[in-house]
Protein: GNAT family N-acetyltransferase
Organism: Xanthomonas hydrangeae
Amino acid sequence: MPPLRISTDTSELDVPMIHRYLSQHTTWARDIPLSLLQRSIANSLCFGGFVECAQVAFARVVSDYATVAYLGDVFVLPEHQGKGHSKLLRA
């Protein structure tokens, strides 16, 4: 199994895939407009999880960068679940 590479570089994110997953497979972001997701990514510390060149996981942190941080929108694509990827995203 290739290792998971984690990046905070938002230019690497597969935004269409993130939008598709969040808007179709979650309760908290069902039908979220793409423009709203793009704004949330721009204003958060985002973590993309990549296997080889494909993004397979995502998480973002909303924070004041001093005392408070909120972890949200954490997911791993179903075909990559059960491999410890979400634990690495949260580490």
About this structure: The first strand starts at residue 4 and ends at 7. The chain has one domain: 4-90. DSSP finds three helices and four strands in the chain.
